[in-house]
Fold this protein.
Amino acid sequence: MKVKVLYFAGLREQLGTPGEDLDVPPTTVAGLRSQLMARGGAWQSALAQGKAVRVAVNQEMAQPTTPVKPGDEIAFFPPVTGG
Amino acid sequence: MTVRIQTADFDAGAEIAALRRGNPRVGAVATFIGVCRDANDGAAVSNMTLEHYPGMTEKAIGEIVDEAKQRWKVMDALVIHRVGELKPTDQIVLVVVTGAHRGEAFAACEFIMDYLKTQAPFWKKEQTPGGSRWVEARASDDEAAQRWEPPKSSAA
């Protein structure tokens, strides 16, 4: 299934890309994160467990167990610092 | 309710006047303006860049304002948040809440800011003498938001 993945702020800089279209089997937020980490290098270190990474699915804050469905927009980013 | 994300500066006086114009039921206007400081975490800051997540940011702030309207008797609310390049003394964010009485307007304004700080997708990058750095989220901001208990509409 096709999904759109976005990366913001420090995470975008560490990963060297603002986002990508991916073709992945049905999964969850945690599953997608694991697949990305499996790329190794910066992906492995920036998304490692214990790193403060927030995830939104279709622009709503998500949990590791949140399902990822065809056409979803999944965003990975650091804790927010606006205001 | 109005939520605007913009690079341009804002005129708080004009925004407040517009929000309450012609509404004789308004007895209180509470406002907050966040401003860019020249120092943070022990380093001088010469300028900062604010990044956001177009679409989600507006939606998240809209949900926070809706939550405030459910909790307090608020007549109207306005949130303007700037993005892009900012320097010390520049205005960053404006929150205006109107109501019949001050207590609810103050509370709703503070609630909106506390939740905006911890829930709305914005990220600050500072330029310091040691180079540029992404601002780290503060535990004190999480604690400020937790005072109000979590809103139904979001989870970190």
Notes: Chain A has three helices and seven strands. Chain A has a mean pLDDT of 97. Residues 29-37 of chain A form the longest helix (9 residues). Helices of chain A lie at 9-15, 29-37, 41-46.
